[in-house]
Amino acid sequence: MKINTLISILSLCSFSAFSACNFDVDFTSIPQVKEQKVELSADATLYISQQVAKKLENGAVIATNVTCQHLVGQPYQLGEEYWQHYLDNAVKGLGKAGVTSLDVTIVGKDDWVYKGPQEKLEYVFDADFGGNKQEIRNLAVMIEETNSLVSFSVSGNQIAKSAIEQEFKRVVGSFKVN
Asked: Which structural domain, as residue segments, surrounds residue 19?
């Protein structure tokens, strides 16, 4: 009984942190949830909630990662410089993860999967991790009403490129700002 109560309380806490971004998205399996609170300054705090679901397609694991970054105490500074910094950080993260070769494609407006009115950046990484070639499709969407950034990433081995693209379209298509 105590264990079930604890699990229920933890589930409610997890849901409330993720729902601060005020959106819905559908996963094909139960995602693993990680949360973090980062004190940026005396006045600003970043609440991060990450949900990752995995499935097997064409012999490859496809990971669907949706992250909410809810900023309290200061606004996001949007614009071209912000998005360049955001992309630079993503590339640095792949470098730390051991990428040996990387192609970056910024998706043009006519080809965006997400057509919503929010400011956004859609991009694709073709990454080689020492022979393990990965396709990583990404979307970052700013929800100004809640001062939150929602990012989507669907990745897997390039042998499952078509399934990765389909899953990216599916999860982004399920995204609804409340």
From this structure: 2-177
- Give the number of domains in the chain: 1
User: Quick one: 102 exposed, middle or buried, by C-beta within 10 A (0-12, 13-18, 19+)?
Assistant: middle
3-state SS track over the chain: CHHHHHHHHHHHHHHHHHHCCCEECCCCCCCEEEEEEEECCCCCEEEEEEEEEEEEECCEEEEEEEEEEEEECCCCCCCHHHHHHHHHHHHHHHHHCCCCEEEEEECCHHHCCCCCCCCEEEEEEEEEECCEEEEEEEEEEEEHHHCEEEEEEEEEEHHHHHHHHHHHHHHHHCCEEC
pLDDT in tens, 67-112: 999 999 999 988 899 999 999 999 999 999 999 999 999 999 999 9
Q: What is the pTM of this model?
A: 0.85
